[in-house]
């Protein structure tokens, strides 16, 4: 690998890459009485068409704030300070609220980790799903209404023909056929007046069936508290996919579920991704979830992305010391006699983050430049990028930092 190639930043390398959403140098801060919380501090990534990107990191590293920034739902005192979020060529941060509302819920939808708190307890499941359909799927409703009307017209025509046949038989003095009467009753039952809300409810039942809920018509009448955790999460996925979005943001969708239900939900999401041709941003702290469902992964630490690339490459050859620490900390049945590897120290306070590389107070490979210079997200190998001075030709020969005994004691406190 030549030095010139290694010095290319992610932004330079991927500037012509075709993608669904492009995020560049995104900064989202929270302005509190204690100080400014730098929750998202210069994040960049791409999500391709029909691609699943995993955003992984410890609690409080900025994953969820990044997701909320994409749909402009950051609440006060938070504010998107600067950056570029480009969705199919549209600059999200420059859109009016009305324009953003058309994208949010239609082209981009989000499901959350706690469906019980996300679903409205006073409305039935069917009403909540159909509300999204009524708001964003007007064309689909129009088509469904036309199909329904066509079916109703067909039933009416069959009733008309049957009545004429029965009248003709009566004129001929033939006995009334009980089968004809029964058929007439069945056809009359099929004639129902349905308004647009009824049709939206039918579509809600259809989408619930697609997420693996067998008795979908009955479930539309239930309230969230009447369902199990796995069922509620399926409802959230159904709601997210009801408008056939181009991007689905899943924020810790399996955290509150047991491992069996978690596996079912992940298989379901993979299946639906192919069926709906949807891209997914999967936010999690679970590397097992990342390996199961994602093609690419962005490892986040303290508001910044420290490593980015194909899942297989990063799992087999993690380059950033933090990524290496995360993967080494996964328990293995092959090494039952060995103690679990831990990352020493604590996650930094984002009001007063460390200078330079934010991981340097916990890093075994710390160099003298690490607390002075912010590392760039640089090309390492094909589609693999790392933000570490160890892989930057300009700084990789910097002298190794000598830890004092006091610093060692502080760093080892967990």
UniProtKB/TrEMBL annotation:
SMART domains: AAA (SM00382). Its main location: membrane. The keyword Transport applies. Coiled coil: none annotated. One of its GO terms (biological process) is peptide transport. SUPFAM superfamilies: P-loop containing nucleoside triphosphate hydrolases. Residues 21-327 form the ABC transporter domain. CDD domains: ABC_NikE_OppD_transporters. The keyword Heme does not apply. GO terms for molecular function: ATP binding; ATP hydrolysis activity. GO terms for cellular component: plasma membrane. It is found in: Cell membrane. It comes from the Archaea. It is a peripheral membrane protein. Keywords: ATP-binding, Cell inner membrane, Cell membrane, Membrane, Nucleotide-binding, Translocase, Transport. NCBIfam families: oligo_HPY. PANTHER family: ATPASE AAA-TYPE CORE DOMAIN-CONTAINING PROTEIN, OLIGOPEPTIDE TRANSPORT ATP-BINDING PROTEIN APPD. This is ABC transporter ATP-binding protein. The lineage of its organism: Archaea, Promethearchaeati, Promethearchaeota, Promethearchaeia, Promethearchaeales.
